Amino acid sequence: MANTPGLNGHAFRELTASEIIGELASELEHAGDAAIAFDGDGTLWSGDVGEESFVAACLAGKLSATLERRLAREAAAFGIASSGTASERAWQLGEAYRAGRYPELRVCELMIWCYAGWTEAELAEHVRHTLAQRESKVELYEPLVPILTWARSRSVRCIVISASPGLVVREAASPLGFNPEDIVAGYSTVELGRLSDELSGPVPYAATKVSAGRARIGDRSWLATFGDNAFDVDMLNAARLPVAVRPKQRLLSVLGDVARAVVFKA
């Protein structure tokens, strides 16, 4: 067992997959029906599947012209210069986010409702095509697979909680055995068989990840959470065993406030 340094001299235990399984097995003896929650981007896989899908759609000019006015209003509300097609305006908002001028939660919402006018099948095909490209940075994080396998062999419910679009997350999570009902993410409403530009509910982000996850797992004991970033802190705190996976500095800076937090060691 090693240690990962945090801020202010705080060190976190590093646990391998087998060590984590050992601790979870011990917890499970007293937990009854249980569930484990995983973040998606940066945790179950490298890269950001929602952002890759969004960027590919913008660069290909695929966003509906009916969104131009809404995107113009969105940009104006944050003092962001905006012009051109819907795809160009959405791209400009994405660039503003990367420059720190557009809020993170707001861009998560944008990356959900930007597919207004598409069918679910069209979006699924777009995501599959995007992930198949050589330049895609989305890659499954294989070291976590033994934990998934163990949990399912013990009838522990495994879910993904992500602020990315649910229909996009499904394509990335499916190879790991997650079904649509295992995905807690952002969705837009569907009208006449096509996605709309209205969200069907709050995006699972920060504290909302906890309420959305709890609604999905019901009365099960929240056995563990695996996450990589600061906006996973609330759901890390909700679990008996909070596990930071390849933690970003933003998470390390606040991980000391999470009781019993450990760092995954591949």
- Number of strand segments: 12
Strand order of the largest sheet: 1-2-12-11-10-3-6-7
User: CATH homologous superfamily of the largest domain - what is it?
Assistant: HAD superfamily/HAD-like
Shape: globular
- Write down the overall mean pLDDT: 95
Largest sheet composition = 8 strands, mixed
- CATH classification, class level of the largest domain: Alpha Beta
Q: Mind telling me which CATH architecture of the largest domain this is? A: 3-Layer(aba) Sandwich
Gyration radius, in Å: 19 Å
Number of domains: 2
Can you give the helix content as a percent range?
A: 40-55%
Q: How large is the count of helical segments? A: 11
Overview of the structural elements:
The chain is an alpha/beta fold. The protein has two domains: 2-47 and 138-264, HAD superfamily/HAD-like (Rossmann fold); 49-131, no CATH class. Helix content is 41%, strand content 21%. It contains eleven helices and twelve strands. It has an eight-stranded mixed sheet, with helices on both faces. The chain has a two-stranded antiparallel ribbon with strand order 4-5. A two-stranded antiparallel ribbon has the order 8-9. α2 (49-59) packs across α4. The protein is globular and about 55 Å long. The mean pLDDT is 95.
List keywords for this structure.
266 residues, alpha/beta, Rossmann fold, 2 domains, eight-stranded mixed beta sheet, 12 strands
